Amino acid sequence: MSKKIVAIVGSYRKEGTIDAAVEAILAGARERGAATHTIYLTEQHIEFCRNCRTCTQEPGAKRHKCPHHDDMEPILEEIEAADAVVLGSPVNCGNVTAIFRRFLERLLGSFYWPWGQPAPKLRKVPSKRKAVLVASSAMPGPMIPLFTGTMGALRLTAKALHAKPVGRMCIGLSSGEVHHALSARRLARARRLGMRLAA
């Protein structure tokens, strides 16, 4: 049975660095027979979290739904039916984009956090879901995890989606031109990561 992989793209620009890297990862997965789908957060109606914590009050492994009626629930249902996720965002102001952050904050239902408990606890859901994390920035790639919160936010998103990161791409120096082309080496690495997700 073929694997299903869902990509969440938090970039504001289509056909930019993040979009190209994510597509290369998915292309590698398709080479291994996987079915893929890309969700662009700019095309979704996702409300801001209100911090009402309604979704966190009931115990149990099942994720609890948010009171908002928007596109978030169908997105989460698709991810929960997938074998792997690709999470991508450029660095904006030292972290993921605002639209990706909005998505992350709406994952609170994956945690149990009743009033009076000092901190949330991740609901225990059996899962073999994998994740690949992708970030881009004007700074050199190795500096992204050292000097921004982007990879931390992507890891937290994967955790809330019960997905284990098995690879990452930190793409630097991506602001030198309007359409930053990925090198053949980076494209090949992205395809290998996609093949790993589909294995």
Structural class: alpha/beta
Order of helices and strands: EHEHEHEEEHHEH
User: What is the assigned CATH homologous superfamily?
Assistant: Flavodoxin domain
Task: List how many beta strands DSSP finds.
Answer: 7
Oligomeric state: single chain
Reported CATH architecture: 3-Layer(aba) Sandwich
Number of structurally distinct domains: 1
Name the overall outline: globular
Which fold does the CATH topology refer to?
A: Rossmann fold
CATH class: Alpha Beta
- Give the terminus-to-terminus CA distance: 11 Å
- Count the DSSP helices: 6
Q: Supply Rg.
A: 17 Å
Q: Report the mean per-residue pLDDT as an integer.
A: 95
Strand content: 15-25%
Major sheet summary line: 5 strands, parallel
Strand order of the largest sheet: 2-1-3-6-7
Give the % helix: 25-40%
Stretches where pLDDT falls below 50 for ≥5 residues? Answer: none
Jot down its keywords.
single chain; 199 residues; alpha/beta; Rossmann fold; five-stranded parallel β-sheet; two-stranded antiparallel sheet; globular
